[in-house]
């Protein structure tokens, strides 16, 4: 499934231009420029501390940047207020640690935002949530509390929860890295399916199988900068920079 569902870059969904961010003296995003087309799946990889999470958080406006701009569907990220809430609901986010609401059932986790933010009727939100839970294979657990589910099941609920808001884009930041090995594939399979259905995704992951199967492009970051951008096959078999070669030899050999 390479780029057949990608519309091209003339009307990109995400445009990141000239983005720089510092934490105090520490320059954590260095002149980031990239675009993500509608339906495109981009995998971001790179060593710890290279700025992958910060970039995701900047795109979702969980973090501000001092320089540059980020457009989602042609609209510059708002600073705050109702526009920001709207933007946040356009951009789904799934984190490494399962951040479900612990004191709410699986079903309540998925219906909460549609009811509160989208003012959906409870019955409609529940019907839709059940469909989404079915899609990610956890509908049997709808009435349980998150702690009664495995990590892989919780992460699939987190994906269903972000889909419930009909996002234009989903950011997934190392969604499988806190999972036991036998649960990784069940989450990756859901992500591969989403990619096939044309969801635009930015995924921070070192799962090369996912990148090869589902990604249109790999972005390799090091020390806050984008060092390489290439198609997955090209990147994994023929990384151009020494930095990427060194990184790949490390993740391939452990
Ligand atoms: N809130 C913060 N305050 C200060 N420095 C921060 C903060 N968050 C991140 N950093 C620093 O910014 C840099 C980039 O961090 P980031 O979390 O984006 O890296 P990463 O590529 O996601 O790493 P990892 O693979 O470990 O998740 C790191 O040097 C980190 O220490
Ligand atoms: Mg990170």
TrEMBL record:
<keyword id="KW-0547">Nucleotide-binding</keyword>
<comment type="similarity">
    <text>Belongs to the ABC transporter superfamily.</text>
</comment>
<dbReference type="InterPro" id="IPR050086">
    <property type="entry name" value="MetN_ABC_transporter-like"/>
</dbReference>
<keyword id="KW-1003">Cell membrane</keyword>
<keyword id="KW-0067">ATP-binding</keyword>
<dbReference type="GO" id="GO:0005524">
    <property type="term" value="F:ATP binding"/>
</dbReference>
<dbReference type="InterPro" id="IPR027417">
    <property type="entry name" value="P-loop_NTPase"/>
</dbReference>
<dbReference type="InterPro" id="IPR003593">
    <property type="entry name" value="AAA+_ATPase"/>
</dbReference>
<protein>
    <recommendedName>
        <fullName>ABC-type polar-amino-acid transporter</fullName>
        <ecNumber>7.4.2.1</ecNumber>
    </recommendedName>
</protein>
<dbReference type="GO" id="GO:0005886">
    <property type="term" value="C:plasma membrane"/>
</dbReference>
<dbReference type="InterPro" id="IPR030679">
    <property type="entry name" value="ABC_ATPase_HisP-typ"/>
</dbReference>
<keyword id="KW-0472">Membrane</keyword>
<dbReference type="InterPro" id="IPR003439">
    <property type="entry name" value="ABC_transporter-like_ATP-bd"/>
</dbReference>
<keyword id="KW-0813">Transport</keyword>
<feature type="domain" description="ABC transporter">
    <location>
        <begin position="14"/>
        <end position="248"/>
    </location>
</feature>
<dbReference type="GO" id="GO:0016887">
    <property type="term" value="F:ATP hydrolysis activity"/>
</dbReference>
<dbReference type="Pfam" id="PF00005">
    <property type="entry name" value="ABC_tran"/>
</dbReference>
<dbReference type="InterPro" id="IPR017871">
    <property type="entry name" value="ABC_transporter-like_CS"/>
</dbReference>
<keyword id="KW-0029">Amino-acid transport</keyword>
<dbReference type="GO" id="GO:0015426">
    <property type="term" value="F:ATPase-coupled polar amino acid-transporter activity"/>
</dbReference>
């Amino acid at each position: 499934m390479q780029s057949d569902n990608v519309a091209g870059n003339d009307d990109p969904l995400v445009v990141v231009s000239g983005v720089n961010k510092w934490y105090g003296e520490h320059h954590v995003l260095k002149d980031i420029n990239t675009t993500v087309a509608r339906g495109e799946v981009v995998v971001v990889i790179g060593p710890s501390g290279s700025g992958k999470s910060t970039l995701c958080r900047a795109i979702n406006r969980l973090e501000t940047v001092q320089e540059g701009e980020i457009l989602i569907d042609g609209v510059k990220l708002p600073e705050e207020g109702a526009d920001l809430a709207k933007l946040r609901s356009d951009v789904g986010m799934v984190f490494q640690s399962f951040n479900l609401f612990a004191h709410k059932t699986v079903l309540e986790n998925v219906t909460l935002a549609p009811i509160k933010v989208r003012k959906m009727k409870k019955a409609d939100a529940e019907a839709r949530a059940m469909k989404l839970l079915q899609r990610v294979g956890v509908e049997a657990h709808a009435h349980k509390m998150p702690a009664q589910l495995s990590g892989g099941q919780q992460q699939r609920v987190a994906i269903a929860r972000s889909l419930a808001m009909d996002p234009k884009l989903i950011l997934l930041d190392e969604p499988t890295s806190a999972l036991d090995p036998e649960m990784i594939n069940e989450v990756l399979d859901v992500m591969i399916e989403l990619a096939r259905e044309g969801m635009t995704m930015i995924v921070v992951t070192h799962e090369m199988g996912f990148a090869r199967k589902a990604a249109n492009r790999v972005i390799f970051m090091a020390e806050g900068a984008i060092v390489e951008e290439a198609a997955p096959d090209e990147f994994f078999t023929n990384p151009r920079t020494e930095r990427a070669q060194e990184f790949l030899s490390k993740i391939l050999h452990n």
